[in-house]
Design goal:
The protein is an alpha+beta fold and 119 residues long. The chain has three helices and six strands; from the N terminus they run E-E-H-E-H-E-E-H-E. It has a single domain, classed as Cation efflux protein, cytoplasmic domain (Alpha-Beta Plaits). The radius of gyration is 14 Å and the shape is globular.
């Protein structure tokens, strides 16, 4: 690992916390029952959101053992079971980050911030 805001992943390649957060957000959006992440971020606009908006919905915390904790807030679509969606998000986020970067994910904390009811 490099500095506090970057991760060295392989052969000197570094990625920022924002890139890891984008990967986490995109993976979370793939879970059935997720309406959006944090402040209304969807898969279509998450990569354009920028660090400010991502920081409100997704946090990446580096542990002393070089593993990370990902904390994210999601808006659930009405009618889905919270435990099932949360487990799916945890699996998708952990797998995506580890496969794309090699960074080990210690845990994925999911907070349901709201439930979306579309007419």
């Amino acid at each position: 690992m490099a500095t506090e805001n970057t991760f060295t992943i392989k052969d000197g390649v570094t990625v920022t916390e924002e890139v890891v957060a984008i990967i986490a957000g995109l993976a979370a959006c793939e879970a059935d029952g997720v309406d959006c992440i944090g402040n209304g971020l969807t898969a279509a606009n998450i990569s354009k959101a920028g660090a400010g908006k991502l920081a409100k919905g997704i946090r990446v915390i580096r542990e002393a053992d070089d593993r990370i904790i990902v904390r994210l807030a999601v808006v659930l679509a009405y009618g889905f079971e919270i435990p099932v969606v949360s487990r799916s998000i945890q699996e998708k986020v952990g797998t995506a980050i580890e496969n794309m970067t090699g960074i080990k994910v210690k845990e994925v904390d999911v907070r349901i911030s709201s439930v979306s009811v579309h007419s």
